[in-house]
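Work through this:
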Amino acid sequence: MLEISNLSVDFHTDGGVVHAVKDVSITVGEGEIRGLVGESGSGKSVTSMTILGLLGTRRARVSSGEILLNGTNLLEMSQKELGRIRGRQIGLVSQNALSALDPSFTIGSQMIEVIRLHQKLSRAAAYEEAVRSLERVGMPDPPQKLRAYQHQLSGGQRQRVVIAMALVARPALLLADEPTTALDATVQKQILDLLLEINRDLGTAILMVTHDFGVVSHMCDSVTVMRKGSVVEQGSADQVLTAPEHPYTRSLISSVPKLRLDDTARAVPRAERRLHVFQEA
């Protein structure tokens, strides 16, 4: 479905050229969930935003490569042509729902606008579709949520709204850029489980941008690891998790914390117990 080949992206700054992405090649098959993993500054978000032409600055330049969506090179499209791809064929779930949603408008007005942009529906029909979209992502009391503003929703509810909006046109591919970073652990799992349900029930392929190998182990079929703008390792999730070849990959996996209450801690009163974090290679 998606094939990124030898992609390089440069940023032309006052201090010189920054090579943000260097000769990156990634594929995402139909119905596949691929993790794109790396620390901050590794180039993973730049890679994902380049797919839709959303780098957001004129100083960014694609110096080489191609991005094929079902055989069509997205890098050769105009912004108007890309506008027809965004939402309809590729949906985007951003990292911060607070920045993705407009605080001046209700959730309903924003969802109805997106639905009518992609579908020729009356406002009343678009409202009913918005209700169904929120029901699809497990939102309680959708009509009430459509009347609300973003500040009246919890973090998890806002993220469900963003996911619902990304799915209104039933895109075949979803770009999820760190969709759980701003959420607490319990809500993170709920959102990840929701994305898994969407993948299973709708067949939506997902490119999951994350720094967390815990997310990869929970939901990904395959994984690409980036460091300093380059791909250092990729393969099936099982292969990379159980037998990582690159030292950087091993360090990322070993940095996933595990909580264990040791025997010494158990011997002291509960109020004075301490959780010790240990790392497993």
